């Protein structure tokens, strides 16, 4: 069953976060992930204000989990830590 990564991000250091974004894309693709939304126009209806919203689809919840814990993604993530405030969840899609 397919799954989504849904991230809400407030970037505090654009240069460092840019390094994360450059490395994260290939790590996500290597696990079968594809971006459905990456930035773009948005409107907050409820919750905290975060200016960047990302949705990536993976072939399964396990693939999304494995991607997050992979060495390649963890290397990318090292650039986002301290450069952003993030919420990231994995949500399994219904059949």
Automatic annotation (TrEMBL):
Domain of life assignment: Bacteria
Domain DUF1330: 3-92
InterPro entries found in the cross-reference section: Dimeric_a/b-barrel, DUF1330
Transmembrane parts of this sequence: none
PANTHER family assigned to the protein according to its UniProt record, in alphabetical order: BLR0684 PROTEIN, PTHR41521
Name of the protein in its database record: Uncharacterized protein (DUF1330 family)
